[in-house]
Design a protein that fits this description.
about 160 residues; Nuclear Transport Factor 2, Chain: A; about 35% helix; Cystatin_sf; TseB-like_dom; membrane
Length: about 160
């Protein structure tokens, strides 16, 4: 009887691990596919020669942000809309960096953990989205202008 209990417990543990891995892989697949398509489009149109980073940015208009260097070696970001609108791009030389945006957003805040910092487009402006948790586990979004470092919008204590 004890062997059956051990066998069932072991089998259920194995099954839980396999299901967790499967859910994580399948859940991330749509994001991976969209990112790969966006990177291919940016390279096909010769907007960037090297890609250093890409991620999905969600706002009113979902897009993939692809960051890299162009043929002249300039650092650029290309915003590839998911729903068929036109690409837009911006030079990142002379703009606020992710680290600077984080510093501005987290100033005078009690931060427990920074969840992410993403570059995106909001109302035809290039914006850094800084998402973090405060010490009391409240979720916060701070949007920083990449042009001048001003705070564009704050959504605090969710």
């Amino acid at each position: 009887m004890k062997q059956w209990i051990i066998f069932i417990a072991g089998f259920l543990s194995f099954l839980a691990i396999v299901l967790t891995i499967l859910i994580l892989i399948l859940g991330n697949k749509p994001f991976s596919d969209v990112e790969k398509t966006a990177i291919a489009q940016v390279k096909d149109e010769n907007l960037l020669t090297e890609v250093s980073r890409s991620y999905v940015y969600s706002s009113d208009q979902k897009s993939v942000t692809v960051i890299g260097t162009d043929s002249e070696g300039k650092l650029k970001a290309v915003f590839v809309p998911i729903s068929g609108q036109e690409l837009s791009e911006t030079d990142l030389d002379g703009k606020i960096t992710a680290q600077e945006a984080r510093g501005i957003a987290l100033q005078d805040m009690e931060v427990k953990e920074v969840l992410h910092t993403k570059l995106g487009r909001e109302e035809n402006k290039t914006i850094w989205e800084v998402v973090f948790l405060t010490e009391n586990d409240k979720l916060n979004y701070v949007y920083i202008s990449a042009e001048d470092g001003s705070i564009w919008k704050r959504i605090l204590n969710l």
